Structure formats: structure tokens, C-alpha cells
């Protein structure tokens, strides 16, 4: 394991209180709440030194300075290892307003480059309004050229965003780190991959959002799931119905009750207990050394296990916190933007040159359309965004079930589910998606912290 990988794993451990675990039985009658079942890092620290280096900290500033700018900087970027802010020092946005405006949110935004603040304001205007509402659960938003991957931490109550997917021009991209997520190396040890993508309708066909031509619309769609994910973490620890009762005299990371947060209740009510998948997640997401048997697993063997439980993604098995974020992210992308999500187990041969060499053993579009998977998403929405509960219930009730991928077909060709095509390169939309390299898909394997 190289130094970058070790550093990333250390970050995961530091951010345990911002990562998650999951649930999911096959019964619609919830069992009693029990202990969490999903694998989690064992090291917990709430006083670790801040994650940004000194040079990066010196660049961070408020693109729209306000009366709270100094508190935001002091409590999110300039903390020392022996310091901790309270919610009296920097309240959650929802402690000052229950319906945040864009101006309210922008008073809590700090960046390394001014274009990031300009773009974030533009996106707040263009994103679904649910994103603005969920800003109630954060103290601030930090956007930095050196953040990779995006994350949320209870140490500060803030979300830290990688701005690469927000960049529109070459000059904007030039100041942002483009290093691949080091966690992808652990995942690529196996003979299989579990891939995901978001898909939209495009000119009569289907299109991976990553394959869209560069435009503000691409940025809007590709960053929406990032915000839904990170804000799910924030609202997990600080749900809207608990904001008035929070203790403002203790450090932020002690202002919530871990056994009572929604992800812990999801794990206790609908637990994920498949040790086969949990053990693979410990290798893929936490750096555990794989066994000889795991390294020998085929895509077909994994495809027999993954659909057994009600996780909507492989990453649900990472931690209970990530389980909640994944269950929320997918259903909100479908509800607010009509964007479908694919997940599939594929063969990973040595040195594949094309994404259709990744042969699908099993895959589905909109896995949350399975009632036993969808009930977990409804459980989460009820607790962290109750304003959307009725709409989510109606959405899930109206879904016919997940669309199945064609086993034996390539990952990219499988984007046209239920459509008749003459071959993998015969239609425009398929050509768009198949022009993407294997590296593009593999680098997108791991969602966000």
C-alpha cells in the first residue's frame, strides 16, 4: 500500500463519524433496532489535525465576505489539533433559518479560487430546491482545489467539496487536483468490478452523465448527486427535527447522539448482514488485505451474492453512514431530476481496452424500484428530509421494478435496456458511451466520503 493510499485510509478513519453503515432485510415489518452490522473503521478520533495543508489554508477565503466569515474560517480551516468549535461559535445554518436562501448559504461558503464561489452560487440557483433546504444541517461549505475526494466531517459540521466536477473551462480545471481517487487501486485487485453510473434520456437513447459534452447542464447534473450525498451525511448527524435541541456548549462532534442518528436506526431496522459482501467492502474501501479466495472470485460468483440483500450499491457495505447516503442519493436523483442509476457486477479481465470488454454478470437500473430496496430509501427520507416524504412515497409506489441488464453483454452496450439495437456501435447514444475508456469507468468506482 503506497503513502497516498495510507493517507486516504487515515482520512476515512478520522472521518468515521461522517462515514456510514446500512440496513436492509426482506421484510416490510421492521424488526427491533439492534446494533449496526456493516463494516466500519475501528479507529475513531475527533481531535485529528485538519486535513488541508498550510499552503491550501492560506488560499481559502470567502468569495462573498459576511459577518460570519471569520467564524467559518476559524472553525473549518484554521483549527489546530487541540481545538474544537461549538455550535455557539458556528451554528448550523438550520439553527438560524429553517428555509435557507441562496444568500444565507453563500455567507457560509469559502473557496481557494473565486470562480468556485461564483459557480456554487450559479449551481444553487439551478439545483433542485431540496439541496438548499438540506443546507440546514451544515455549518459551512469549503471548496478547495486540493480536496479529493469530497467529504463531510462532524469535527466541523462542514462539507468539503472537490471542485473538479464544477469546472467548465481549461483554466478552471488547471487549478484543481486531477489525481485519481487512491481507493480505486484497492478495488482493482479483484477479477470483478461493481460499477455504477447515472443515466439520462438523450435524443431517443440513454446517456451516461459522464459522457455529456461539457456544459453548465452537465455540471449541474453531475454535481447534484455529490451534494445529495454529502448533505445526507450532514442531515444524518443533525436531522432537521433535532436542531432546536442541540447542545451548543460542547464541541460540534459531541452535539449529537450516535445511537439515535438515522443511519444507526436504518442499520438496526433494515440491517445488511451478508458477510460475503461486508468482507469484500473491507478490502475495497478500508484497505484490508484480500484473501486468496477473494482474489479468485469471479464476477458470476459475486453476482449471485450482491442482489440477495437490499443495498442499492456496493458502497452501502462500506459503513452504516455510507449506506444511508447511498440510499438517499439515488432516490433523490430520480425524484428531482428524473436521472436513473445503474449498478452492475462485471468481469474485469487483465488490461481491458474498451468498456464493453467489461462483461456484465448481473446489473439493474433503478434498483430502488425493488420494494425491499426502496423501503430503505423511504425510511431515510422520512428522517433527514421529511418535506419530500410524500413525494418519495408516491414515486416508489409508481415504479414497476428495476430494469435488468443483459447478462453476457458489455457494460456500455447495456446502457440501452429494453431497446432493440443492431450492435454496440450502431446508434448515436451507444457510440457516445462506448467511446469512453475503461479508465473513465474505473476511476468513477468509488462514490464520496
Task: Outline the structure in words.
It is built from 18 helices and nine strands. With 449 residues, the protein is an alpha+beta fold. The strands form two sheets. The chain has a five-stranded antiparallel beta sheet with strand order 6-5-7-8-9, sandwiched between helices. A four-stranded mixed beta sheet has the order 1-2-4-3, with helices on both faces. A hairpin with a 4-residue loop joins strand 3 and strand 4. It is globular, with a radius of gyration of 21 Å. The two termini are 20 Å apart. The model is unreliable at 1-49, 419-435 and 445-449 (pLDDT under 50).
Order of helices and strands: HHHHEHHEEEHHEEHHHHHHEEHHEHH
Give the helix tally: 18
Helix content: 25-40%
The residue ranges in which pLDDT falls below 50 over 5 or more consecutive positions are 1-49, 419-435, 445-449
Largest sheet strand order: 6-5-7-8-9
Please provide the count of β strands.
9
Q: What does the largest sheet look like?
A: 5 strands, antiparallel
User: What portion of residues belong to β-strands?
Assistant: 5-15%
Measured between the Cα atoms of the first and last residue, the distance is: 20 Å
Structural class: alpha+beta
What average pLDDT do the residues reach?
A: 84
Taken from the alpha-carbon principal axes, the silhouette is: globular
> Cα-atom Rg, whole angstroms?
21 Å
Amino acid at each position: 500500500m503506497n503513502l497516498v493510499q495510507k493517507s486516504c485510509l487515515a482520512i476515512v478513519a478520522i472521518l468515521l463519524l461522517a462515514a456510514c453503515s446500512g440496513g436492509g432485510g426482506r421484510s416490510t415489518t421492521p424488526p427491533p433496532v439492534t446494533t449496526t452490522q456493516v463494516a466500519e473503521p475501528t479507529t475513531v478520533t475527533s481531535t485529528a489535525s485538519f486535513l488541508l495543508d498550510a499552503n491550501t489554508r492560506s488560499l481559502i477565503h470567502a468569495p462573498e465576505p459576511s459577518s460570519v466569515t471569520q467564524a467559518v474560517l476559524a472553525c473549518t480551516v484554521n483549527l489546530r489539533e487541540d481545538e474544537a468549535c461549538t455550535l455557539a461559535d458556528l451554528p448550523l445554518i438550520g439553527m438560524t433559518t429553517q428555509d435557507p436562501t441562496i444568500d444565507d448559504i453563500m455567507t457560509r461558503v469559502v473557496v481557494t479560487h473565486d470562480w468556485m464561489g461564483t459557480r456554487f452560487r450559479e449551481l444553487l440557483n439551478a439545483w433542485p430546491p431540496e439541496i438548499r433546504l438540506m443546507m440546514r444541517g451544515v455549518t459551512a461549505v469549503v471548496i478547495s482545489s486540493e480536496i479529493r475526494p469530497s467529504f463531510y466531517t462532524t469535527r466541523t459540521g462542514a462539507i468539503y467539496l472537490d471542485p473538479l466536477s464544477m469546472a467548465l473551462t481549461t483554466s478552471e480545471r488547471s487549478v484543481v487536483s486531477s489525481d485519481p481517487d487512491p481507493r480505486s487501486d484497492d478495488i482493482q485487485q479483484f477479477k470483478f468490478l461493481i460499477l455504477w453510473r447515472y443515466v439520462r434520456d438523450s435524443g431517443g437513447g440513454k446517456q451516461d452523465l459522464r459522457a455529456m459534452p461539457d456544459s453548465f447542464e452537465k455540471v449541474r447534473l453531475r454535481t447534484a448527486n455529490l451534494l445529495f450525498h454529502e448533505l445526507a451525511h450532514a442531515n444524518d448527524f443533525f436531522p432537521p427535527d433535532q436542531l432546536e435541541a442541540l447542545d451548543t456548549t460542547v464541541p460540534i462532534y459531541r452535539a449529537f447522539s450516535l445511537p439515535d442518528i438515522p443511519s444507526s436506526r436504518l442499520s438496526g431496522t433494515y440491517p445488511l448482514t451478508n458477510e460475503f459482501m461486508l468482507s469484500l467492502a473491507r478490502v475495497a474501501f478500508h484497505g484490508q488485505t484480500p484473501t486468496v479466495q477473494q482474489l479468485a472470485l469471479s464476477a458470476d460468483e459475486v453476482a449471485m451474492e450482491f442482489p440477495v440483500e437490499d443495498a442499492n450499491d456496493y458502497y452501502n457495505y462500506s459503513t452504516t453512514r455510507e449506506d444511508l447516503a447511498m440510499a438517499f442519493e439515488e432516490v433523490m436523483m430520480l425524484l428531482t431530476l428524473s436521472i436513473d442509476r445503474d449498478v452492475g457486477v462485471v468481469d474485469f479481465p487483465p488490461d481491458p481496452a474498451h468498456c464493453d470488454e467489461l462483461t456484465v454478470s448481473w446489473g439493474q437500473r433503478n434498483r430502488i424500484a425493488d420494494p425491499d430496496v426502496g423501503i430503505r430509501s423511504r425510511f431515510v427520507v422520512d428522517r433527514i428530509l421529511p418535506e419530500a416524504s410524500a413525494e418519495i412515497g408516491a414515486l416508489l409506489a409508481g415504479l414497476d421494478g428495476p430494469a435488468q441488464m443483459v447478462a453476457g453483454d458489455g457494460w456500455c452496450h447495456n446502457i440501452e435496456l429494453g431497446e432493440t439495437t443492431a450492435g454496440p456501435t450502431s446508434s448515436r447514444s451507444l457510440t457516445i458511451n462506448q467511446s469512453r475508456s475503461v479508465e473513465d469507468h474505473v476511476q468513477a468506482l468509488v462514490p464520496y466520503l
